[in-house]
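Let's sit down with a protein and look at its sequence and fold side by side. We need material for that, and I hope you will provide a protein of your own picking. Once you have written the record down, we can walk along the chain together.

***
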Amino acid sequence: MAAAQLAAAIRRAAIQQPEFALETAVESAPLKADITWFGDVWDEERKTRHLPLARPAGVSPAEWRALRASVKETVAADGVAHTNYGLLDLDGDGDRDLIIRSLMDGTGVWNFVDLAWQHAGRFVVWVQPDGKPLVSYSERGANQVDLWVRLQGRSYLAFRDGSHGQDRVYLVRPFVTNRKVPVITLSYRYVQIVVTDKQMRHDVWNIPELAARTTLLAQTVARLEAGTLAKWPRPGQPVCPIPEDVDPQRRDYWFGAGAISSYLDRAASFPVWIDGECYVSQLVDRFGYYSRQGGLWMELDLLQPEVEGMEGWMEFEVNARRRLHGVKTGIGRFDLIR
């Protein structure tokens, strides 16, 4: 079973690479897909994008002829900022097929992934019954990426959909209308948590107090991640106790620390008690985005609900490293995230 093979590879990789078990597994033999990637080029005079003038390295003469016969140039009005092409045998017939990854301009910075099989000297774009691409995802407001692997002798799209403390990897067969597909769920625990003050609000806390507060906040976040502190209030309950004499028009401030940007995800909403005072707090991140250099970036917001304006608002930066905690397999609906 493809999902079991990938899950086993992830568990093996975690022994040496607990932070990047998935990435290590998909880049290791025999799972690594041998893809030849190349990109289009911009013609400033004609304001179009087209294939490179010379045959890219790794592309055979026959494949290059098929590409030149099949791939049309795009104009700036099409909204295509850049297109990458990948050659990989997707259907097992011995001929390499085409992965088309188009980056679209706009607020969301969208990626669209289409497929084309090689047939009779051309690449023929595969169209799903609903007319949509194989997958589309935004580089803002999500933490997603299309990975390609070889499992059980076949090529698969391993589509990773990330969130705080979790990656879900959907295994998608090319040229098949996928609705329910195998899913591998990776869960993470965050350690080495460090909190720093972004605003340097020394008018609120002096430097010794600030050091003590950030230590307390780091301990609070560690309790959240360890599961010993509830991340969310009960439905309909405020985060912090509401004083009896509060203005009814301000009651909402005790239920949450406010709206967040569309490219961020709220990972937790919880109370923080400092010197007997309850702060309405929230932890946000970039949908669990994680890098080798910076690890996990988060923002911790504290709100004094009884204080009006920005004087009652504080922001802290949180950094942490992750460790793979668990791997499980199942079945999920891929069309929900397309």
User: Anything to note?
Assistant: DSSP finds four helices and 17 strands in the chain. The longest strand covers residues 313-333. Residues 234 and 270 are 10 Å apart (CA to CA).
